[in-house]
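Because discrete structure vocabularies remain unfamiliar, it helps to consider an illustrative case, giving the amino acid sequence and backbone structure tokens:
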Amino acid sequence: MTFMQVSQLWKYPVKSMVGSRESSCFLDVLGVSGDRVWAVRDLDNGGIRGAKKFGELMRLEARFVDVHNVQITFPDGRTVRSDDPNVHEFVSSFIGARVRLETLRPASDIEHFRRGRPGSDDIVEELRAVFGREVDEPLPDFAVFPPEVIEFESPPGTYYDCWPLMVMSTSALRSLQRAVPESVIDERRFRPSLVIDTGDAPGHPEFSWKGRRATMGDCEVEFLSPCPRCVMVTRAVSGDIPADRAILRHIVRDLDQNLGVYARVTKPGTVSVGDEMTFVS
């Protein structure tokens, strides 16, 4: 059996912005503590939005500067804090849309999480835009998503798209690079919560983890369905990670539309880089 251990831990303070690699994190039922506790609201069409709608968000970086506030860094090195009254204007100007930075609300604030107006009256056209699908490519199996995301931008009380964690393997990253050698394969493009070192295991071993539970550090997680990928993996992240549609074409054509696997926390606890991952079921 392959020895597996935690290789990377990521925290994304602001939905769709580049986050920070952490040496240790606390995982609870909402995922990584401090993850996606800020997001932007579309002031023209309503709804909490991410890089599916505003791709330029992925070129911004966010880091906590204290318990309550984050600092956003722009590609040119400029920074602005979340408690700066100009933060909304600065982010809006950069992404080319009127938005407001907002903090996470409790699940009871249902209206906060309702979807905004779609970009098209044609639902299939809208879904193809969100998932970055060509006209001859299938849309994902929506049964893998929690039912509440039909009505809400995210499960109420959260700013993640579907499930608290998205887990990838080093094998998957290596396999992607072999499959699309001209593309820049960088984990920042795929936004994993955790990257698991799976040694020399071939392909995408995490696809086989569905339904299993594993411990890492003090935490236990349950692996759910493989993660259907959307237009976000095509977005530019930086000058070194340019826009690239070839990666998504490979994912759709050769990987049944999936990359990585969703997971949820079944036993909260602290996880650190280097912790062994061991299956318990």
In short: The chain has a mean pLDDT of 96. Residues 170-179 form the longest helix (10 residues). DSSP finds six helices and 17 strands in the chain. The two ends are 15 Å apart (CA to CA).
